[in-house]
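Progress report, Aim 2. The chain analyzed during this reporting quarter is listed below.
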Amino acid sequence: MTVFLLATVALGWSSPAWGQVAVLQALDKVTARLSLVEASVNQPVKFGTLQITLRYCRTRPPEEAPETSVFLEVVEIKPDEGPARVFSGWMFASSPALSALEHPVYDLRVIACKTSAGLAPAEKR
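Predicted structure tokens for the chain:
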């Protein structure tokens, strides 16, 4: 993180907007039910048998190309089994297939980052 901040200052890059809440689109492939899920940083949220934990939510500033990226940890919790990690990594709104959750029943997609006051600055267009 320190290297990123030093490069940002040295190269004159704009700093990203770090959100506190990620808005995710969740799909249950069995029922074809689409849901919007809001996940706060370090606060697990459930969707079906998935427990989704947001670690970071970042939106580029308005003067750059639009991009929202989140770091998620997803654990599946089945009643008769222990928790199993099914995804851990970055997801990108502009390229959902680049780093996707591969699950037979559920699909997740990044929509936006929000701050406590609403949408992050890059989203207010």
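Confidence is low (pLDDT under 50) at residues 1-14, 120-125. The first helix runs from residue 2 to 11. These observations will guide the mutagenesis work planned for the next reporting period.
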